[in-house]
Write a structure and sequence with these properties.
The structure is a single chain. By secondary structure, this protein is an all-alpha fold. The chain contains eight helices and no strands. It folds into two domains: 88 residues, RNA polymerase sigma factor, region 2, helix turn helix motif (Rna Polymerase Sigma Factor, Chain: A), CATH 1.10.1740; 80 residues, Arc Repressor Mutant, subunit A, CATH 1.10.10.10.
């Protein structure tokens, strides 16, 4: 029975000859491994599923770079982990930019002379304030003192009676959690879009 199962090297060679069935066999063989790696990074089933698809696309495009003297399973795991790390960094930066933009906007002077713009400004400020209200007290305090009131790490450490390292950790955790809350609030109907789709 085992003799009928093609080895990785044979499947890869067939993939490089553009045989779709060989690629499907590789996906079936390694899907569980790639999903497990993706799930460890995301902690969410749906996100891990999406990431798994993206990783296999990356692997497919990178097959020609694979050294066929190396172990394919090890190489695949390395590609998957590196892709997850890059994805995490990009997502983290997206969250940071969202918070930075909203905080900078909150500190900017209010618009005047344009009632529509003024209403939009008020909505954005309200959006940020609601996100802050949902943060745990300690994280909210850190974000407000640093990003809205402009205190230095040392000033915060003195005021809160905490080491600077703890202050920095709270600020980072607060920004990340605030970004998650705001991104979630921006997509309230994401899970409902498919309900009205025609068959």
């Amino acid at each position: 029975m085992d003799a009928k199962v093609p080895p990785d090297a044979e499947l890869i060679a067939r993939c490089l000859r553009k045989e779709a069935a060989a690629w499907e066999a590789i996906v079936v063989r390694y899907r569980r491994k790639v999903f497990h790696i993706a799930y460890k990074f995301t902690g969410k089933h749906d996100e891990a599923e999406d990431l798994t698809q993206e990783i296999f696309m990356k692997i497919f495009k990178s097959l020609e770079k694979f050294n066929q003297d190396a172990d394919f399973s090890t190489w695949l795991s390395s590609v998957a982990r590196n892709y997850c790390i890059d994805h995490y960094r990009a997502s983290k930066r997206e969250r940071e930019v969202l918070v930075e933009d909203l905080v900078a906007f909150d500190l900017a002077p209010a618009s005047s002379g344009n009632p529509h713009r003024a209403l939009e400004d008020r909505d954005r400020r309200s959006f940020l304030r609601k996100g802050l209200e949902l943060l745990p007290d300690k994280l909210r305090e850190a974000v407000v003192l640093r990003d809205l009131q402009g205190l230095s790490y040392q000033e915060m450490a003195d005021r809160l009676g905490l080491p600077e390292g703890t202050v920095k950790s709270r600020i980072n955790r607060g920004r990340e959690e605030l970004a998650r809350l705001l991104l979630r609030a921006q997509q309230p109907a994401r899970g409902q879009r498919g309900h009205g789709r025609r068959p």
